[in-house]
Design a protein that fits this description.
MG2, A2M/Complement_sys, 6% helix, 2 helices, five-stranded mixed β-sheet, TEP1-F, 25 strands, disordered N terminus, 400 residues, thioester bond, endopeptidase inhibitor activity, mainly beta
Length: 400
């Protein structure tokens, strides 16, 4: 017997077997048996038998037998009469079969004599179950609503006359709520339950049992604590750092603040040297002022200017131990005045005037007063001509 778990492989091997048989022994009978390698409950099991070359019809005895998980022997048997060059499909209805060890056996007599068998794999999945919850995360005291959609292998709703069992377990695996013998409507069953005020936190699960086939889906039960205070960092233009810590209703918070200061890194393809960082701790009662010397504390060099500095404050409340953080940034410069060229056009024409503006301001964009000094402007252009030599080498000499 030739047995396949794939129809395509079966056909290829059958043709190969048939051709080699014809070449070697012209009168040797040839047959093929095609059947799934997996056995599933509540699904019709098909066995296809073909007699390719035989002197007379063949009587086949097709049997599936074995022992289930309860050590109970089970078997189904069918007889089929097949003429030469004919194919017949034998159907087995394996309803309510349990996991176990099973074998497919084919016995043929008449035009050919054959006795072959093969082991089958029992796969205890004949339904698809989809479990939906109305939200992924729940808080204590909230209503949990969920529904279960049960379909057959053809994605059609399961019969409403067959019940299913539902079970909810908490984060410790304890059974919290159970619904027995629930009859789905058009394949859909719904249920709900109310969480306690102080439930077990963590990953809960909805378990579904469909005729011994089990499915589950997790959801989270977590307690969300609203922030009771806020943290702010106020950065003036000079490095005088002020940290405010207040409750959401305005009361000052006592605790400890950890301040971390470091140049902000913007990643690119160029490798930059590691930057220094600075960290300090201080007691806080609503507000604390921290004095910093960035050049010294961060070991900055002149090539750091212009540079963005990041301030990260972590505050731990003294009474509750709750921690909250915030981040703020500021820029530092090596000069307090900047000059920007404002162009009126990106192009110019020879012989025509070109108008541009120079904007002189502080780094914070505030204007510079006239008493600060004079602005010296240098402008012009240079031109140089050289002869192109025959050796295609041009000599350039410049004074830098």
């Amino acid at each position: 017997m030739v047995y396949f778990s794939s129809v395509l492989a079966a056909l290829v091997f059958a043709l190969f077997c048939f051709n080699t048989s014809v070449l070697s022994q012209r009168n040797s009978p040839v047959y093929t048996v095609i059947a799934p390698s997996k056995l599933r409950p509540d699904i019709v099991y098909h066995v296809s038998i073909t007699v390719h070359d035989a002197p007379s019809p063949v009587d086949f005895n097709v049997q599936i037998f074995g022992t289930n998980e309860d050590r109970i022997p089970v078997s189904v048997l069918k007889d089929v009469h097949i003429d030469p060059k004919q194919t017949q499909v034998v159907d087995f209805e394996l309803f309510d079969w349990k996991p176990g060890d099973y074998t497919l056996e084919v016995i043929g007599q008449g035009g050919l004599t054959v006795r072959n068998s093969t082991k089958l794999i029992f796969e205890h999945k004949s339904y698809s179950v989809y479990i939906q919850t109305d939200r992924p995360v729940y808080k204590p005291g909230q209503l949990v609503q969920f529904r279960v959609i049960v379909t057959n292998p053809y994605l059609l709703p399961r019969s409403s006359q067959l019940p299913i069992d539902l079970l909810v377990k908490d984060g410790h695996g304890n059974s919290i709520r159970e619904w027995k013998n629930v009859f789905p409507t058009n394949g859909v069953a719904s249920a709900e339950f109310l969480l306690a005020d102080r439930p077990v936190l963590g990953e809960w699960a909805v378990h579904v049992n469909v005729e011994g086939q089990k499915f589950h889906k997790n959801f989270t039960v977590a307690e969300f604590i609203m922030p009771t205070y806020e943290v702010h960092i106020e950065l003036p233009f000079f490095i005088l750092l002020t940290i405010n810590q207040m409750h959401s209703y305005g009361k000052a918070v006592k605790g400890e603040v950890t301040l971390t200061v470091a140049p902000r890194t913007r990643y690119n393809k160029l490798n930059v040297r590691p930057y220094e960082s600075f960290q300090t701790k201080a007691r806080i009662d609503g507000t604390v002022v921290i004095y910093l010397n960035l050049l010294k504390d961060l070991s900055l060099r002149t090539d750091f200017f212009k540079r963005e500095i990041e301030f990260f404050a972590l505050v731990e409340e003294e009474e509750t131990g709750h921690k909250y953080n915030t981040t703020n940034t500021m820029w530092i410069y090596d000069k307090d005045i900047k000059i920007d060229l404002i162009r009126t056009s990106e192009t110019f024409k020879p012989g025509l005037k070109y108008t541009a503006f120079l904007k002189v301001s502080h780094q914070d964009e505030t204007p510079v007063s006239n008493s600060r000094g004079q602005l010296e402007l240098l402008y012009g252009y240079t031109i140089r001509e050289e002869d192109w030599k025959k050796n295609y080498i041009l000599f350039l000499e410049m004074e830098l």
